[in-house]
């Protein structure tokens, strides 16, 4: 598989994730409406008979009544508030996300040899690719080998590596990982990452 084929597959996967998110929202709204429909049906009168009042066709009709539309609007409003509040928390882009997950910023210099090596590699890659140097962060309590980038634009991008990656990789291996992460910045994958976190 070549790079461009991989890109096409990644974009298709992103579209599938968005579709699944919308599907989950629809299911959530339907479940909330189902509970409200049963609640309203049970308490609407004293002579309630379960088999007569609750049916699928009655539920569908209720969905499009004023009560059903109000319930659906309320669910959409709650989902929207949740997305907006998460977006507001992450409005600073990748740097805000890195801080939120507990990553430590390395700044522009470090006394630790491995951390300084990472800073140097990131700066070299930024110069080579013509991209603004992203914020560099380390997840100190994470021993697994992993890295990711996030941010809305080049200017607010952050590159986060785990402590396990930082301590276990040689300079060449670190350069390969950072180069890979820079390809995500160049192709806008970091925007997808942070949007998925918001959703």
What does this structure look like?
The chain is an alpha+beta fold and 199 residues long. It folds into two domains: 3-89, no CATH class; 94-198, Metalloproteases ("zincins"), catalytic domain (Zincin-like, 2-Layer Sandwich), CATH 3.30.2010. It has helices at residues 3-43, 50-53, 56-63, 66-89, 94-100, 113-129, 163-168, 171-186, 189-198, and strands at residues 104-105, 135-139, 147-150, 158-162. A hairpin with a 7-residue loop joins strand 3 and strand 4 (158-162). It is elongated. The two termini are 30 Å apart. The mean pLDDT is 84.
Question: How do the strands and helices of this protein lay out in sequence?
Answer:
Blueprint: H1 3-43, H2 50-53, H3 56-63, H4 66-89, H5 94-100, E1 104-105, H6 113-129, E2 135-139, E3 147-150, E4 158-162, H7 163-168, H8 171-186, H9 189-198
Parallel strand pairs: 2-4
Antiparallel strand pairs: 1-2, 3-4
Number of helices: 9
From the alpha carbons, calculate the radius of gyration and give it in angstroms: 24 Å
Ends: how far apart?
30 Å
Mean pLDDT: 84
Order of helices and strands: HHHHHEHEEEHHH
Beta fraction of the residues? 5-15%
The spatial strand order of the largest sheet comes to 1-2-4-3
Structural class by SSE content: alpha+beta
Largest sheet: 4 strands, mixed
Q: Any idea what the CATH superfamily of the largest domain is called?
A: Metalloproteases ("zincins"), catalytic domain
How is the CATH topology of the largest domain named? Zincin-like
**Rough shape?**
elongated
Can you tell me the CATH class of the largest domain? Alpha Beta
Helical amount among residues, as a percent range?
55-70%
- Count up the domains: 2
């Amino acid at each position: 598989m070549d790079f461009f084929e991989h890109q096409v597959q990644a974009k298709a996967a992103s579209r599938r994730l968005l579709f699944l998110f919308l599907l989950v929202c629809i299911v959530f709204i339907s479940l909330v409406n189902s509970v409200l429909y049963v609640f309203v049906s049970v308490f609407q009168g004293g002579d309630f008979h379960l088999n007569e009042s609750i049916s699928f066709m009655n539920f569908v009709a209720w969905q499009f009544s004023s009560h059903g539309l109000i319930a659906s609007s309320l669910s959409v409003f709650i989902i929207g508030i949740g997305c907006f509040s998460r977006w507001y928390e992450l409005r600073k882009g990748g740097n805000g996300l890195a801080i939120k997950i507990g990553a430590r910023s390395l700044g522009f210099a470090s006394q630790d040899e491995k951390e300084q090596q990472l800073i140097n590699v990131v700066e070299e890659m930024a110069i080579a690719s013509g991209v603004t140097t992203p914020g560099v962060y380390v997840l100190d309590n994470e021993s697994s080998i992993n890295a990711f980038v996030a941010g809305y634009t080049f200017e607010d991008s952050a590159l986060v590596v785990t402590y396990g990656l930082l301590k276990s990789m040689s300079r060449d291996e670190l350069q390969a990982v950072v180069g890979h992460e820079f390809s995500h910045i160049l192709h806008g994958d970091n925007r997808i990452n942070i949007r998925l976190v918001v959703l």
